[in-house]
Structure formats: C-alpha cells, structure tokens
Please model this.
Amino acid sequence: MTEDMSPAERYAAAKLRAAEQATALAPFREMYDFGLDQFQVEACQALEAGKGVLVAAPTGSGKTIVGEFAVHLALEQGRKCFYTTPIKALSNQKYQDLVKRYGAEKVGLLTGDNSVNSEAPVVVMTTEVLRNMLYAGSRSLAGLGYVVMDEVHYLSDRFRGAVWEEVIIHLPESVTLVSLSATVSNAEEFGDWLDTVRGDTAVIVSEHRPVPLWQHVLAGRRIYDLFEERDGQSGGRREVNPDLERLARMENSRPTFGRDKRRGRNPREADRERERRQRARIWTPSRPEVIDRLDNEGLLPAITFIFSRAGCESAVQQCLYSGLRLNDQEGREEVRRIVEARTAGIADDDLHVLGYYEWLEGLERGIAAHHAGMLPTFKEVVEELFVKGLVKAVFATETLALGINMPARSVVLEKLVKWNGEQHADITPGEYTQLTGRAGRRGIDVEGHAVVLWQRGMNPGALAGLAGTRTYPLRSSFKPSYNMAVNLVSQFGRHRSRELLEMSFAQFQADKSVVGISRQVQKNEEGLEGYRESMTCHLGDFEEYSGLRRELKERETELAKQGAAQRRVAAATALEKLKPGDVIHVPTGKYAGLALVLDPGMPSGRTNGHRGFDAQDGPRPLVLTAERQVKRLASIDFPVPVEALDRMRIPKSFNARSPQSRRDLASALRTKAGHAVPSRHRKPRSVAADDREIARLRTEIRAHPCHGCDEREDHARWAERYHRLQRDTRQLERRIEGRTNTIARTFDRICALLTELDYLEGDTVTDEGRRLARLYGELDLLASECLREGVWEGLGPAELAACASALVYEARQADDAVAPKLPAGKARDALGEMVRIWGRLDALEEDHRINQAEGVGQREPDLGFAWAAYRWASGFSLDEVLREAEMPAGDFVRWCKQLIDVLGQIAAAAPPGGTVARTARKAVDGVLRGVVAYSSVR
Model:
C-alpha cells in the first residue's frame, strides 16, 4: 500500500506513526491481543490530553478499556487512581482483573466487607467508600490523579444514586474523572453537566455493538426471527416478521370446528386438519424444552431472565427433573473440583443448610440460578463457571444485568412483564436493552441472540417497538440528607454548601426544563419596556394613574359580584318558600309568564317528601305553565325573588304525562289567576353608590395630573396591555421559581431542622453534628438521636445488633398483618424507644415540610430482622437462625454485612465514656462469623 503513496504522503504517515509511538496509548495498546475500537481510541486520546471523559456505549462493547487506560496513566505519572463500582461483586471482579495485570502490590480493594492494600496506587472500591473518604478528608486522597466511575448511570437509582453526584461534585479539581455508562439517550445532557462541574469533558457515544444482536421469538418448536430484512425497502428498513403476525392473528381468531351454520354444512376435513395443525404450533415451551432447543441450535451458553427468585430456583429443579445434562464427564469433574475449592472454608453443617448438594448437582449438569437471595460465594462460583463455559444455562433475575461480567451467546426473556414493587408492569425499552445487552461474547461469538418466549396475547408489533427503541434517559435521583448537610456545612459553610448543591445534575436538569419559560420571560420584559414608553405622559406618572383606574375597576367589579350574589341568595330564599299549588309569575326565560308549582324541587336533605337535587343547584321547581307545558325550572329563570300570587288545589288524579290532565289544569290556572298582575320588583340602590373606597378613588383620579391629558385614553390602552403582560410574566416567574432552587430549598429545610435539634449553629457544626457526620444511611438522624439519648447504653452485643438492624433492614414486601418477633428485655425496650424517637422526628419533618415521598427524611425503622440478628449475634447456628427467619441465605448474609457496617459507624460515633462503642465492636465480632465472615476475595 505504501508503494502507491507519494514521498510526501509516506513522510506524513511515518511522522504520524512516530507521534503515536511517543504517546502513552501506544504501549498500552500492546498490552492487549486485539485492536482497540475507534470510540476507545478517541476516549483514551482525550484522557491523555488532560480532559475528563464520558463514555456511553452498549454492554459488552469494552468501555472498561478506557478505565484501564486511566489506571495505566496514573501508574506512568506516579499518581493514584481510584476505580469505583456500584456493587461489591463488581469491585471484587475488577480487583482480580487488575491484580492479574499489574500485580497485587500495586492494587488494593476497599469495600464494606474487605480492606486489602488500601494505600496502593490503584484502589478498587465501591462508590460509597469514596464518598465517605471525601467527607472525612481522608489522607488517602493525597496524590489522587484519576477516578474511574464504572456504571455511572447508577445515579438514576432512587436509593443510592445521590452518592454518584456527591462524589462528582466534591472531587478535587485536580482529579480527572472517567465516567463509564451504558448507552443512554441523553448522554450529551449529562456531558454538559460534567463539563459545568468538572471542567473540559469529552463525550464519547458509541451505538455500535461489537457483536451484532439478532432478535427472535420462540413459539412451539420453532424459533422465528422477530424482524425480516426486505431489500430495497426504504433503505433496508426492518419489518416485523409476517409469520409472527400471522401467528398472533391465528391465536386471536375463533376456531371454526363444528358445523358451518351459515352454509348449513360441515367444513371440509382437510381445512379442519390444517387449522388444527396450525394451532398446535402456538404454545409456550417449558424451560427444559427451551434450553434443549437452544442447545440443538448451538445457542448456548444462555441466560434466561425470570423476574422472580423462586422462579429461578424452580427452573433449575425443572431442568434437573427432566434429566437435562449439558456437561460431559470431564466437565462435571472440573466443576466439582472448582466448587469444592471455593467452598472449602464453609462448615459442612452450613453447606447442608444452604442446599449445597442440590446446587452442586445443577452445576455439574451445567445449570444454575443467579439471584440476590443466594449466598455471595455461590453466586461468584456460578459467575466463574459460566465464564469458563462449565455452566451453560443460567436462570437469573434482572440484577444480573447490572454490570456483572457474564456475557452469553443468547439471552432469553420468559415474559415482558415484571413486578416493580407496586404492580405488574411492562418492562421499558431501557430495561429490554439492558437485559438483552448480555447476548454476544466479544472475541468468541460472531453474533448474539435475544430470544423472547411466545406468550398468549403477544403483540409482535409491540415487541418490535420495544426491541427497536433505544430510549434510556439518565434521570438524577439526587436529594440532600442530614449526614450530607452536616458534612457540607462543616467543610464549606451554609452559603457555599447551597451553591454546591445547586451544581447537582438534578438541579441542572430542573433548570434546563425552564429554559423555554425563561426565554419567554425575557421577551415579555422587552415588551413591557416598550409598553412603558408608549404610555408615558408628559403631565405626570401615568403608571400611577392607570393603577388608580385599575383599583377602581376591581372595586366596582367586586361590589357588582357581591350584589349579584346577594340577589341570587334572595331569589333562592324566595323559591324555598314555595309550596305545591302556589301560582307564580316566572320573570324571565323561555317559560316566562303564569305558572303553577307542582313540586318545589328542594335540594337533597330538604325535600319534605319531594324529589331533591344537589344543594349547589338550589331549588328547581316543577311547574305547569299557562301554555300546558310541565317543566323543571332552574335558578337562572329567577333572577329576582318570586312570590305566590294565589293558590290552587291540584287534583289527586292529575297526571303530568297526560295531555288531557295538563290541558284541564292549565285552563283552570288561567281562569283562577289570569287577571293577576305580579308585583313589580324594584331594583335596589347600587352598593357602589355609597361605597367610600369608590368615592375616594374617583376623587384621586379626577385630581391626578394625567386625568386632563388629551391622549389619556390612548395612554390607557397601552397601560392595560402593560398590566396584562406584567400579570402573565409574574405567572411565568412563579413557575420558574417552583422548578429552580428546589435542591437548595430542601437543604435549607434540613438545616432548619438540624438547627432546632442543636446539630447546627449557623455555619458551625456542634459536637452532636460531628457525631451525625460519621453516620451514613437512610436513618442517620435516628441513629444520632439514639446515641444522644443513650437508648443503647447498657445493652449486650446481641441486643445492640438487634437494635442496629432496624436502621438498615427493609422488608422486600410490607407485611403489616403480623408483628415481628422481638428479643425480650432491654432490647425490646430499646427498640420501642427507637420507634418513639422516630415518631418525634417524623412530626418535626412534617413541621419543616421535609417530605419522605420525595426521598428526603427518615422512614420508619423496620424491626423485621431484629430477632434473626439477635440470635445470630448470640451464637446460634445458621440452620436455627434461617429456619425461624424464613429468609434466603443470600439475603441474610447481605443484611448481616450491612449490619456490620452500621455497627462500625456506631462504634466510631458513640460518645466517649459510655459502653456503646465497646459493645458495638463486640457485636461486630458476634455477627462476623460463619458464612458471613467468609471472604470473597481470593
């Protein structure tokens, strides 16, 4: 190829290669046995140029290469790099990867569970650990050059998302930020915010999947392509497979078996047989059948997403009962060797409780479940075996889609509906993209496959829309907390803290939503200036004069409304006095004239046996007019009070539906009262005539200099336009005020509550406030109040563990029907006192307009884990604890890990001189044992 180049071109190419070799990227590329994609190169070049980067790319596209380049740069420059992940499992996985590449002496790990070589130049940690380091002013931050935030789209998480924004805002300016995100539809907006708070940030977006993804539907024994490529149609546009649409129509149509009544004969046997065969093709295959079919098609390994833990376990059992085997003898032996090595530290009694042997049987056959209810070690073994190709079918909940490195050849979705905590809802396009993004292993598979199982009532068009939409917007879930408030005020003071919070992505998005309104306000203000010039009068202040005229008009309008209301009340009062047989004169309307009251039509509750109406309608009398019409009148027909002119007896035989009855009674009405003349209603004197305020305004208007201006009415028209536009502008400004400064206003309310509780004194954090600064979590303020009031003094380690569990535990589903079992004695009393303190705080939050529904404030402590925590910390066996707790082992271990974390915080924050700190450390020792203590770091 170089032979075709001119000398100048060859020189330029050589110069470019030499320049590339001089960069840090060149030796980094040589560390990999594959070439980098264009988006990876662009991001690494931006990073080497000193810019921060946001990389948004599909799952499995290799965006972590950019994070690893930040590690490479930090080591080359003699600086530190922190690599943060949203979950401990990801941190453990990344730690192992970096140790293999750089060696254990250069890489550390910090999670809630583990601390390994924490002063290393490269430290992998969960995002919360870094947030806590920033607030504590940790010495480990010295020399920090790069921070990689993997899975940064987690900031949308409504429970934990605020942590990501706290880190991004509070990182020192000297730190270069590398943000790695799944494909989001508003990456540019997020990049704009990063540019605002972190400085120059390059936004690198890649929609390209390195492994193409094919979409399918499995119905019966056949796998259908979801889309059909039609050459020459609108640039190769994909259409929904007509075979699937035909299946949907066939399922929805009624069977035609039996006698054709319209034609009076039976359908032909061939037609019946063909329809029977077609319908037999439409069914949802069982889970073992799905795996067997994928195996025959060469589409394993596969992850089947089932939105239920019990469903995942049931799927494994169904496959085992069916006799399904995906591993040969050699594979089975390799699985057993790995599993036994990884679980050697777990006691045999605990293994029995954990269902180890059933789990191992599934693994040996190449089948496993993966969900949050499993023991962390078990999940990690499944992940390891899946990556090695020794587990070929995994049934998982959607949590597996959140970053764990488990790519598969195929992904199967059983249903497109899941329980969202409140109701069964359709999965979103963003969720569909996240789940199916696991399909296709880079460097292994030529293509990935997403398979959706046919379900009754499936709409292929809707599925195609779900698969073809790439809408996954990043939405901030940032909310200030009590702990955040005292930490910010301690470091920056109230005013600067307020400014920092207004830099959040949440406020950035809120502010951006009012840009259009702000633009309209700006136009209105320009218009107001023009109107002000046009209404200028050389004789005086016309704005003042028009204000007097407007006040006069508003006062006259108000009095007119009062007069009209009084007349309506008088008319209604008169109608309420009417009785059947009264002869009246209807003053206005279509039925004006003489009329006989048949039914007063009183509102409900005041009917006196007559038909009633809503009170707001007022009386609605049913009358017979002199023209023989029976009509129900309304208050609008009586603008003035009405009086009975005479009375008549209504015959008992009168039937309003009978024309003869109406004719006879109307004739009697004309004879009886045809000569009666209604009394003329005198219009009362206007209230405005005697109103002192109106008299004063009229006097001031006549005395004003502008009243004598020849162009007065012309000025007045401009003044009216000015006033109307000013009113509209104020409404727009109120809308802007409602959307802007929302975070800062919440912060002010939190600070006001903390000031009332003596945690803050202006810009000063009190001793109690410094204690609160060391307590993180949803119930930080409750924990601090319990320490201040000595609620936990005198408790034993197990009793304190029971109390602390209420600060972290939250049941997956609320169950108010059964009161949780609690330990007796001091622990029960302390738990009751915690609930009482929470009630007081809840009332305070209501007084300060701190709304829990908006994610701010203290939820009620959940006592559902107190008994399990008490028994475990007391030394009971895993079997005894789990049997009573009725809780999966994975959940139990996870809550124990969080309990250990909060006990550590309590030990650090407890006031000196008391027993709580020492008891909390003993409680940690009591909880950190057995399966809870088994380390996942190898």
